[in-house]
Automatic annotation (TrEMBL):
This is Cytochrome c. It comes from the Bacteria. GO terms for molecular function: electron transfer activity; heme binding; iron ion binding. Residues 22-103 form the Cytochrome c domain. GO terms for cellular component: plasma membrane-derived thylakoid lumen. The lineage of its organism: Bacteria, Pseudomonadati, Thermodesulfobacteriota, Desulfuromonadia, Geobacterales. Pfam families: Cytochrome_CBB3 (PF13442). The keyword Signal applies. InterPro entries: Cyt_c-like_dom, Cyt_c-like_dom_sf, Cyt_C6.
């Protein structure tokens, strides 16, 4: 029980002191959980021309975190829809920021 409480306190301190929102590790974990199966290493298993690279995103009108979140909320055919109940705004923003910082 003590180990669980210590681990939980450590995780909370990482989350509280990480600016803004999630620590990078948490954002990666959220990406892996919700996006990684279809977008391994920033690719796209369904539509190879729609990767998560900045160049590809920009070519499809996606330039900022709000654009990525909008695509999560209202995707095109073949992509899972992530409403706020499934993926709260804080997690969606963490994933969007992670995508923009990770997949050049």
């Amino acid at each position: 029980m003590k180990k669980v409480l210590i681990a939980t306190a450590a995780m909370l301190s990482l989350t509280v002191f990480a600016a803004p929102g999630f620590a990078k590790e948490d954002a990666k974990a959220e990406f892996d959980k919700h996006c990684g199966a279809c977008h391994p290493k920033g690719g796209n298993i369904m539509k190879a021309d729609k990767t998560l690279s900045k160049k590809s995103l920009a070519a499809h009108g996606i330039k900022a975190d709000k654009d990525i979140i909008a695509k999560m909320r209202n995707p095109g055919p073949g992509m899972t829809k992530f409403d706020e109940k499934t993926l709260p705004q804080k997690e969606a923003k963490a994933i969007a920021d992670y995508i923009l910082k990770t997949f050049k």
